[in-house]
Write a structure and sequence with these properties.
single chain, mainly alpha, two-stranded antiparallel ribbon, 2 strands, 68% helix
Length: 473
């Protein structure tokens, strides 16, 4: 029965791939994600957000209330709820274009995550140093900077295992949570490579170095405040204090150098898109491009050529990426109505929204929805306040110069608030899954949200709002 449901889901997606060929010519010059608000299709009914809410509740309560059932059936739960939305759009709205577009987004998402996951799994980093609070802070800050070079996903997948091993005598859930805060999210706010929303802004016409020039002075105090709180918390952890620095060699071992080539290929392939390089061919009506083909090829070849001893030392298996793949295909499908309704409201009331409102609206929704389309929808609404079109690069460049406070607010929020839930950003869930495979008991969805994100991050984000966005616009 389970296999039949999965087959039905992918048959529908295959049907969409060919049905949408009638749109192929119109889409050839706009292959990247469009703000969902700009589609001409009928809006969904409000009750169609129910599957998304149910999936979030299942993710939050499943591991606690019905753990055994959840572990064996989460793929089916995710796919069934996703199918409800897919069938609604097919039967009642006749909107195949939005479904295929979302499927293409999902393929890009899972291609990037899976390629980085497998390529980094073939790299072994051993830090044989005593894990002190200061050493951990330095490690996390380096990871935060690295996130801007290889992306939050790349930095997370590369560093989470050595971070766990470095703290093996004193590891606790809070180590992983602050790793998610700094490396998997806040760290990647300075370049388009850092996080997908910023890359979409780059594709729309924002200068590559604009983010660094206009966000570093917000990024720096934010990441330092989070790191300072971590230092205080970690200083109270007395586990492993009986060991001394002399018990460690102080060496840093790095193996699997060839996989750095695979990581380089992945990063280069991010830019292999018709929207970035004009001579790159589009594969429309297929829901993927050359970029995704390269990334999935890296998955295959990096695994086949990986050193088995490194994989074994990393305790590498495909379970974390499998969990992400199944849960996020349901999330991507069920969130379509929510995104469309939010985009519609944002455009209706955009004229009355200031930079602070855009900051909180983009941020909170980015924590529960995919931050890439959320970023585009609110950027589109902000530009609409001034009669500008997000699809015209010249107008995006004009908006960046004249009304940059809105883009700063939306960009900062989309990246920073991805840390407030496990599903706020792709690497969050993968880091959680890898940590659980390593035997670390991670907090549940709601405990993570209220005990850690609300108490640690939200006060910092309020300070950022008061200093940089309150009363602007």
């Amino acid at each position: 029965m389970h296999a039949k449901i999965k087959i039905l889901f992918f048959v529908i997606l295959l049907f969409l791939s060919f049905h949408v060929s009638t749109y192929a010519q119109a889409d050839q010059d706009t292959t990247m994600i469009q703000p969902i608000a700009e589609t001409a299709h009928e809006l969904p009914e409000a009750f169609m957000v129910i599957p998304f809410v149910l999936l979030l509740l299942a993710i939050a309560t499943g591991p606690i209330l019905y753990k055994h059932f959840w572990e064996h059936n989460y793929p089916i739960i995710s796919i069934i709820l996703g199918l409800i939305t897919v069938l609604y759009y097919l039967i009642f709205l006749g909107d195949t274009h939005t479904l295929l577009h979302t499927f293409a987004e999902y393929l890009s998402f899972i291609a990037l995550l899976s390629s980085l996951f497998v390529a980094s799994g073939g790299i072994l980093i051993k830090v044989d140093k005593k894990a002190t609070p200061l050493a951990n802070v330095i490690f996390l800050l380096i990871g935060g900077v690295l996130a801007n070079i290889i992306g939050t996903t790349g930095a997370s997948m590369l560093l989470i295992r050595p971070f766990i091993k470095m703290n093996k005598d004193r590891i606790s859930a809070y180590h992983i949570i602050f790793f998610i805060f700094i490396v998997s999210n806040v760290g990647g706010a300075l370049t388009p490579i850092g996080d997908p929303p910023l890359f979409l802004g780059f594709l729309r016409g924002v200068n590559f170095f604009w983010f660094f020039e206009n966000i570093w002075f917000i990024w720096l105090p934010t990441i330092l405040m989070v790191a300072a709180i971590f230092y205080v918390v970690d200083s109270r952890n007395k586990k492993g204090t009986e060991s001394t620095a002399s018990d460690y060699t102080g060496k840093i071992e790095f193996r699997g150098t060839k996989n750095l080539l695979y990581l380089g290929i992945i990063l280069i392939s991010v830019f292999i898109d018709p929207a970035v390089i004009s001579w790159v061919p589009s594969l429309v009506p297929l829901p993927f491009g050359i970029r995704e083909i390269i990334m999935f090829s890296v998955v295959y070849f990096s695994y086949k050529t990986a050193d088995e001893e490194i994989l074994r030392d990393n305790e590498f298996d495909f379970e974390p990426i499998k969990e992400v793949a199944f849960l996020f295909i349901g999330i991507f499908a069920t969130m379509i109505p929510a995104l469309q309704l939010i985009a519609h409201e944002a455009r209706l009331y955009g004229d009355s929204l200031n930079a602070g409102v855009f900051y909180w609206a983009t941020g909170i929704l980015s924590g529960f929805l995919d931050n890439a389309p959320t970023f585009l929808n609110f950027l589109s609404a902000a530009m609409g306040k001034f009669g500008l079109d997000i699809n015209v690069q010249a107008q995006v460049k004009e908006f960046v110069v004249v009304d940059e406070i809105y883009l700063v607010a939306i960009s900062v929020a989309a990246v920073f608030f991805g840390a407030i839930t496990y599903i706020g950003n792709g690497p969050n869930f993968m880091v959680k899954a890898i940590s659980e495979r390593a035997g670390i008991v991670m907090p549940t969805f709601f405990v993570y949200l209220f005990k850690y994100a609300v108490t640690v991050l939200i006060p910092i984000y309020i300070i950022i709002w008061l200093i940089f966005f309150y009363g602007h616009g």
